[in-house]
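Changelog-adjacent note: as of this version, every example in the card shows the full chain rather than a window. The one below runs 174 residues end to end.
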Amino acid sequence: EKLRNQIEDVTDDAVLLMAELHVVHFLMIWKGAIGAAKKVSDVETILSWRESTAGIEVPTDIVDALQTGVAHPGQWAVTYRHTQLGYLVRFAQVALATKNWLEVAGDPQQLKAFVESIETGRADSAQRHSVLHLALPDHFEPIAQPKHKDAIVVRYGELLDAVPDDVDEAILQI
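Full-length structure tokens:
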């Protein structure tokens, strides 16, 4: 109800964008944190708020993609979804304004620096880590919590000759 009231006066395109942002947000979230039926229902509910979007069906491939998810982002990230969505909005704004975006998006180090450089003033690390994994899954593991990444490096870093300073690089080498 709160979200519906917040987007009551926006364009139909903005309502569609909000539904799409929810899809991106939900892709990473493990079904044990938010079930697939709830994910799809939330997207369909947002679409139902406008006559122009009410008839849009969530495509089967998206419904299929929302079935599993790969990480539990933490209770805080699930409860404060608006913070995670706010990061995605800011991420999209900055990405669209970046002239060399395709170069940035394809390079792990540049993408990580880009993702970390976006200021929101909020605790949105789970969404930041999710964006990295969704963009470059061969380089960034499906781990949404920084403390879990750190714990892996602490536990298994001894397997490496030298542990890189960057936690994602260390995990990749492990």
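Structural remarks: The CA atoms of residues 4 and 10 lie 10 Å apart.
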